[in-house]
Amino acid sequence: MRFAIDDAFLPATLSARPMTDEEFSAFCAEHPDLRFEMTAEGELIVMPPTHSDTSACNSDVGGQLSVWAKKDGRGYCCDSSGGYVFPNGARRSPDASWTLKSRAKQLGPRKRKSF
């Protein structure tokens, strides 16, 4: 199902039935021009692009986190494109994130290729 949302109405929240990781990934792939997150209750949040000031700030935060992560060596730093499933079922893409290497390895290669 294709749809369009004017930027003036973003972020927008849409009601949806609960989705598995595979279904959510497929849904996102069907709408490559939009960025989605999902609440623990199953509501889809259509995320707007960031403005210049916010983007610059996010880049700075991610850069600092990346430098720290390389010095620390215990984990991976990811940008805002990385999606995570939280214990409550929410699927979010934080502006920057860090994950212990040991924790990432527990997921296995297949799971690391999904949310």
Report on this structure:
It is a single chain. This protein is of the alpha+beta class and 115 residues long. It has helices spanning 21-30, 52-72, 101-112; strands at 12-14, 35-38, 44-47, 75-78, 84-85, 91-92, 97-100. Strand 2 and strand 3 form a beta hairpin. The two termini are 22 Å apart.
How much helicity do the residues have?
25-40%
Q: Would you identify the regions where 5 or more consecutive residues have pLDDT less than 50?
A: none
Read across the widest sheet, the strand sequence of neighbours is: 1-3-2
**How would you characterize the largest beta sheet?**
3 strands, antiparallel
Assign an overall shape. flat
The radius of gyration over CA amounts to 15 Å
Oligomer: single chain
Helix/strand-derived class? alpha+beta
Strand content: 15-25%
Compute the number of helices. 3
Give the integer mean of the pLDDT values.
87
Distance between the termini: 22 Å
Give, in order, the helices and strands: EHEEHEEEEH
Instruction: Report the count of strand segments.
Output: 7
